[in-house]
Amino acid sequence: MDKRILIGLVLGLLAGLVQYFLFPNATSLNIIVNAVLGLIIGFSHTSKLPLKHFVVAPLIGLILYAVLAIQNNTAWLDELATGAIFGLLITYLVSLLGKKMG
Question: pTM of the entire structure?
Answer without folding.
Answer: 0.87
